[in-house]
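wait is this the right file?? whatever heres the structure
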C-alpha cells in the first residue's frame, strides 16, 4: 500500500464499532483495563468539540486502521520550560517585545501510560545553547517510574508585524542564564 493511500482525519460519530477494537488494543498495550462505562464516557468525550481531547484516525484504503490520541505530554514539557525561565528571572514571552521562540523540533518517547488526573513530575534540562537556538531534554516521571522522555528545540526569532519571522541571535541575558 502506498503512503498516498493513508489518510488522517477525525473519526466520525458513526465509527464507534471500528474504534473499539483499536481502543482495546491501546488499553492492552498499556496493560490497563477499564469498566465498560469508561468506553462510553471516553467515546462521548472524544466526539465532543468542547473537550480538550480529540481523536484522529489513520485510514488505509478507506478503513480505520489506527488511532492517534492527542497528547498533553508536549504541553507538560512546554510548561516545564516556561517554569525554568521564570525560575531564572527571565521571560520567554516578554510583554511588548517582538521576540519569540517557536519550536522547530519536538519529540517524545512514551514509556508507560499516564491516566487522567494522575500527577507527573517533569524534569527539564538545557542540553544545548547555540547562537540562535535552544535544545531542552525532558524526563516525565510518576514517582520513580519514567513515563516518557522528550526533547524540544526552539529558535530565537524577531516578530515584526506584517513580516515573516526572522531568526536572530539569542539575547545575551538568555545565554547567560540558560548557558
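ok assuming it is, sequence goes like this
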Amino acid at each position: 500500500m502506498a503512503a498516498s493511500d493513508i489518510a488522517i482525519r477525525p473519526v466520525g460519530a458513526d465509527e464507534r464499532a471500528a474504534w473499539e477494537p483499536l481502543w482495546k488494543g491501546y488499553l492492552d498495550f498499556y496493560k490497563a483495563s477499564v469498566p465498560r462505562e469508561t468506553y462510553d464516557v471516553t467515546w462521548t468525550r472524544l466526539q465532543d468539540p468542547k473537550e480538550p481531547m480529540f481523536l484522529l484516525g489513520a485510514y488505509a484504503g478507506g478503513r480505520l486502521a489506527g488511532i492517534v490520541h492527542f497528547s498533553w505530554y508536549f504541553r507538560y514539557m512546554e510548561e516545564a520550560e516556561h517554569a525554568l525561565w521564570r525560575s531564572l528571572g527571565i521571560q520567554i514571552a516578554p510583554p511588548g517585545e517582538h521576540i519569540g521562540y517557536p519550536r522547530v523540533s519536538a519529540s517524545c518517547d512514551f514509556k508507560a501510560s499516564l491516566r487522567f488526573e494522575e500527577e507527573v513530575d517533569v524534569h527539564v534540562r538545557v542540553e544545548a545553547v547555540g547562537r540562535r537556538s535552544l535544545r531542552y531534554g525532558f524526563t516525565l516521571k510518576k514517582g520513580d517510574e519514567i513515563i516518557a522522555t522528550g526533547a524540544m528545540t526552539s529558535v530565537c526569532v524577531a516578530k515584526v508585524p506584517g513580516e515573516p519571522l526572522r531568526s536572530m541571535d539569542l539575547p545575551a541575558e538568555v545565554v547567560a542564564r540558560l548557558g
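Residues 73-178 form a domain with the Thiol Ester Dehydrase; Chain A fold (CATH 3.10.129.10). so i think its the right one actually
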